[in-house]
Amino acid sequence: MAIALRLSRGGAKKRPYYRIVAADSRKPRDGKYLEQIGTYNPLLAKDDEKRVQLNEDRARYWLGVGAQPSDRVARFLDAAGIRERAARNNPNKAEPGDKAKERAEEKATKAAEAEEAKKAAEEEASAPAEETAEAAPAEEAPAAEAPAEEAPAEEAPAEETPAEEAAEDKAEG
What we know:
CATH 3.30.1320.10, five-stranded mixed β-sheet, 4 helices, elongated, Ribosomal_bS16_CS, structural constituent of ribosome, Small ribosomal subunit protein bS16
């Protein structure tokens, strides 16, 4: 007879309460069991000591005679220090494959090169602006002196254009 340490559900609708039982693996989940070795109340807080109550001596006995715990009961036994549970998830499964890693590296190098090119372009753009800013005052200085010299010379008033003359005729008439 194959014996399993598993949960047997009790409680009302939407109010679960489980017994931790040693049962024949061929029997139904909530059917006849050999012995109740603990309880599990998932409605209690995770740090509550009454959430999982386990008779350690009887659990050790049933494990000793070959009972196989379900996943959830194995977690409870591991937390109680009765039986070590091996991790079931493969931590490398979520890791990307070799080709995906290569694509990610290529993308990272292209992004780095683009960033360097952008910085270089900004430096080149700012460098000529500084050079023109330094050169512009030198060029503007003679230009600023020239109008000062021409200021004493008076210019004759410019003749009126034909459009201005037509506008004056309409205003008079």
